[in-house]
Structure formats: C-alpha cells, structure tokens
Design goal:
alpha/beta, nine-stranded mixed beta sheet, four-stranded mixed beta sheet, 22% strand, globular
Amino acid sequence: MAERRFDVTSLGEMLVRLSVPTGQRLETAQRLDVYPAGAEANVVSLLARLGHRTCWNGALPLNPLGRLAANALRQAGVDMTGVLWSEIGRMGTYYVEFGAPPRGIQVTYDRANSCITQLGPDDIDWGSLLDTRLIHLTGITPALSRSCREIISDVLLRARGRGVPVSFDVNYRQKLWTATEARATLLPFLQQSEIVFCSARDAENVFGCSGSMQEVAQGLLDQCAARFVVVTFGERGAMLWDGMGWQHEAAVPTQILDRLGAGDALAAGILNGWLKGDIAAGLRSGVILAALALSQFGDMVITNESELLALTQGSSTLLR
C-alpha cells in the first residue's frame, strides 16, 4: 500500500475563545484574552508539534477571525489543504470565566450558524481528508447541525471503504443536545471507530455506565466494541483498553492555570503512541500532555517532541 500523505486528519469546527482574566466576571470585564480553539484542531495542532503530518478540514470565514484561527494552525505546522474559506458564514465564539470555588468555570457559547453548519458532504475535500493513516473526529461536530451529522456519517462510511481507521472522542456538550439525542447518534459512530475516547462523566450521562472506574470503563467498551478504548477520570487519571486488558495511568500533578483543552491533549498523546506502534506508551504521554495543557493558557498546547521525551523520562521538574 502506498504511503499516506498525512498521519492524522480531522474535520470539525474552530472557534475563537475569549477569556475573562481570572477573578473577573464577563458582565463587567474590560479586557478579554483571545485564543483560537476547537477540539479537533487542538489534537492535530499538538500532533503536528510532535512531528506528525496533520491536516485540519473545515470552514473558516474570510475575515480576520478566520485568519486568526488559520494562523494558529499554520504556526503549529498543520496542513490547510482541507479548509474551505467562506464569505457567508461566521466564526463561532465562546466566552470563559475562570471561577474559584464555590464557582466553577462558566462558559457562554455564541456559535449558531457558524461556517461549518453551512457545509454539506459535497463541500468536503475528501481527497485530503481520506489520504491519511487515521481520521480523528469528535461528538461535537454532529451536534452542530443536521448537515454536520450527515457529514460525519459520510466520513465514517468513506473511511471504511478506504480502509482508514477512525479515532472518535465523545466530547458530549449538553448545551448543544440532550444525552438521549447524543447516545442515539453517537453510539453507531463509536461502533465504527478503531479508537474511542470518553470521559467517565460522559460514559455515565450519555451511555449509562456507572460503578467503579473498572465498571465504567468496561461498560463503555461493551457498548462500542472498539479495538482501543480510553476512559478519562480527571484527577484519577485514565484507563486504556489495549485489546488484551485494561491499563491505568495516574494523572500527573501540576499547577492548574487553565482547565480547557486537557482532554484533547491526552487524546493527542495516545494517538502519538498509536502512530508509533505503542499505544500503551501513548497513555503515559497523554497524561503528561494533559498536565501541560492544564499548566498553560489557551486550548492549544505549545510543546515539542524533545520536551515530551524529557518529561516522559523524568528528567525535568516542570510538572513536580
């Protein structure tokens, strides 16, 4: 088989994140920190920084906000062949307030009618999306619109026809759809995926998995029957089904500056291991990259292969 053009491709929505400085409220804010974001883009940008050939597919508005998002991907080394530049859509945004206990993080979305919701299957650059070793998708995209749901269904169908495995992160967003709707739509997608990622909270709320860590993880595995399954448990770490048994990796202690993007970083770490033929090593990389995400501002993790290697080998005290 000829070598694929990319190691990982993805398709999804990018947004602009506007964060209120810690301790302030959005309704009285005088300054906002601006970061490009998007679950799929977070994963492929981090993989690109780790030396992999990646491509992001989606739509961006032909305006400064779209160029802001594109610049972040280019800076990370992500190929932009699959981007459709739109003159009619808009850039989705979301606003974040970082609250100390008893308040948690408050997120306000403004993403209706964003560019990707205007796309249909005929708008996708299938050549770039399918010319890859792996396609990474999330459950956010099919929640955005009916046409997005059709696109993701088509991606899985075409990927199977081309022999391209799919990685799927549940990433349930209750502000986009109900748990019942999500389960009905996502379960068939998970059953067609090679690698499945899911948080313990989503496993319980969407798929009804409850009990101990082992029981939650096994309950999800029984429903999706993927070759590899990853269930994350926050401060308790993550569990990986590697086809033979469950492996657990504890979370890496870190100073938390920004909680957003940690799950995407963990997924990128595990995919980094999968691409190198050692998904178990990817689990360790994943929890380290998740810790890095928590210790940096913004959704996209800034690191490199050398730093990850040093942290994996324990030769750095950055996370201690």
